[in-house]
Fold Cytochrome b5.
Amino acid sequence: MTETSYFSREEVSKNDGKNTSKIWLIIKEGVYDVTSYLEEHPGGRELLEEHAGKDATKAFNDNGHSSDARKKLESFRIGQLQADDLKNLGSSKTSTSAPRVVEHTEPAQKKSCMSTISCGLCG
Ligand code: HEM
């Protein structure tokens, strides 16, 4: 079993290729170490370096990555953002309301033609 590591945005931002030789990216709630992918990335190393230590969710999505690219992305996952920082996700919807419970009400009693004017076919 692999345990999930949680990182703060601050911790991720330190891995920007300058302070360390590592390059980490945030994509959605995941944290990815793409250091070993710099040379291989078909979009070039510059784009990864540009987002080093930062949230690259929009950049990743805007560049129409294939499902293969998404699978590959998961192979670089080292953990995820800690709960406190998830609240600041640009793309997250802030829904605090509990799921709506729809009350099931009995349908209004059907009127039968017997109770009003007889149609002549029933009863
Ligand atoms: C770990 C993160 C990433 C992975 C695994 C990844 C993977 C890939 C792969 C496999 C391709 C080839 C086309 C495809 O299959 O979709 C690709 C292309 C591309 N990627 Fe990424 N990518 C990552 C992050 C990024 C980021 C952050 C950007 C930022 C702008 C980016 C920009 C591009 C661009 C522009 C192309 C097109 C290159 C071309 O067609 O010449 N990628 N990427």
Observations:
- The mean pLDDT is 83.
- Residues 67-75 form the longest helix (9 residues).
